[in-house]
Amino acid sequence: MAAYIIFIRDGEILDQDAMQAYIDTNAKGPKSDIMKPVIIYGETTALEGDAPDGVVVLQFPDMAAAKAWYESPHYQEAIPHRKRAAPYRVFMVEGL
User: pLDDT tens digits, residue range 4-20?
Assistant: First the structure.
């Protein structure tokens, strides 16, 4: 069953250099045939409550694959840059 990792940026980018380091670290990583970007900071319109500053949704074949990608040494190296760059919430959700 498909699984998704969802990144919600809850505020503006506070450290542009850290965001660039996050982008660069991700770009240098191994390409994954199991991860499919579904949403990458598309236009967001609030219907109820406040809209976040940004949303990223990555699709994986299942929860195990999503967790393995998140826990990979490469992505773990990128996380501190993202955390310095802006406030985010990150979670996994199982699809239908």
Answer: 999 999 999 999 999 99
For the chain, how are helix, strand and coil distributed in percent, rounded to 5?
35, 25, 40
pLDDT at 30: 79
pTM of the predicted protein model: 0.92
Q: What CA–CA distances, in Å, run from 28 to 41, 43, 77? A: 20, 26, 11
Per-residue pLDDT at 66: 96
Domain ranges of the chain: 3-94
CATH of domain 3-94: 3.30.70.100
The beta-strand segments (E) located in the chain are 3-9, 36-40, 54-60, 88-94
